[in-house]
Amino acid sequence: MFSVNVIYNKKGYPKLVCDGYFYRPHNAYRNQPKVLWYCSGRSKFQCPATLRTYNRELTRWRLFTCLQELASRCCSMTGTRST
Prior knowledge:
With 83 residues, the chain is mainly beta.
């Protein structure tokens, strides 16, 4: 299955790490048991990858970030755009 962890930045904002890819929470659901997570490259690269968790358990996912052609454009894996 997937390796899923939640990490926090210096300001306490959560990020979900799933198999090396980073996701940010949808702000409306951030403090709820059910959270919708977007790829961190969503706004810059229009990455369609999403995850849904319920009580920190992964329940649904669209992992289009794993596709090679999108992963080459998306910065969500390393935090920087790959060349």
